[in-house]
Write a structure and sequence with these properties.
The strands form two sheets. The chain has a seven-stranded parallel β-sheet, sandwiched between helices. The chain is built from twelve helices and twelve strands. It starts with a strand and ends with a helix.
Length: 260
């Protein structure tokens, strides 16, 4: 394996740009994973590894995973500790990185399943946390419309690898997708902080169901609310008027699965 020691290496500069630029990720249809856990989670996913980079000390520490990664990566390089520090987005990098291809064929909404839909969520930590909770609780998949980048490093870290495993539909028009889902027998619920909405604890979620969480500041758009089957709310007894998006998502998904 060749070793890269220069922080100004063109490959390294290109990978760093994938870390920091959504535009670069979309143009190249690639994203970067950092850290042993995220990188080695690729083994249990559909994602293809284009480039694998690792320090020699990390290769010794993760010898089995290192050898397995060499079997699936298109290319692999040793990198110096200095180069790892340049690439790393975390305070103390583990010296393990993967450049992965973004799949060109996406998932589709399938009847008989439960989904959490995100309408214009802009905080990557919220997005990652919701996807992580969805996988942990047993939600079948996610739907993202007009959200922050699914492959943002913060979203990937917050998801703890769940973004690599949970099917996520990238919607170009959430209203159209809702109408198609309803035609296929789905019930669609828009979560809103409104006293006249139905109490979420009173809902019996059918097998084909979608619940929507809205933007951190403005909530669910009026068009999406109008397309939903029903407006639901998480009743709060305290003085706070609303919940953080990831917390609202967690409670909503728990209720969707309660009694299954």
């Amino acid at each position: 394996m060749d070793k890269i020691t220069s922080r100004n290496n063109e490959l390294i500069k290109g990978i760093k740009k994938l870390f920091t630029s959504r535009k670069a990720r979309m143009q190249e249809c690639k994203f970067v994973l950092e850290g042993a856990r995220l990188c080695f989670d690729v083994f249990n996913s559909v994602y293809k590894v284009n480039t694998f980079l690792i320090t020699e000390s990390a290769a010794e520490k993760y010898k089995k995973q290192f050898e397995d990664m060499l079997k699936i990566a298109d290319s692999a390089y040793f990198i110096s500790e200095d180069v790892a520090d340049k690439l790393g987005e975390t305070e103390n990098t583990q010296g393990v990185f993967c450049v992965c291809a973004i799949p060109q064929v996406g998932y589709k909404i399938a009847a008989g399943k439960k989904y959490i839909a995100l309408d214009s969520l802009q905080d990557p930590s919220n997005l990652g946390a919701i996807i992580r909770t969805a996988e942990a609780l047993g939600i079948d998949g996610g739907i993202c419309y007009n959200c922050c980048d699914l492959y943002n490093p913060k979203a990937l870290r917050a998801s703890m690898g769940s973004i690599l495993r949970l099917p996520v539909v990238l919607s170009n028009n959430l209203v159209d997708d809702i109408e198609k889902a309803k035609a296929d027998g789905f019930s669609v619920y828009a979560t809103v902080p409104a006293k006249d909405a139905e109490d979420i604890t009173e809902i019996v979620f059918p097998e084909s169901s979608i619940s929507i969480i809205g933007n951190e500041g403005s909530g669910i758009s009026e068009e999406v609310k109008a397309a939903a089957t029903e407006l639901i709310t998480i009743n709060m007894l305290g003085r706070a008027e609303s919940l953080n998006a990831s917390m609202a998502g967690a409670i909503t998904m728990w209720e969707m699965l309660r009694g299954n």
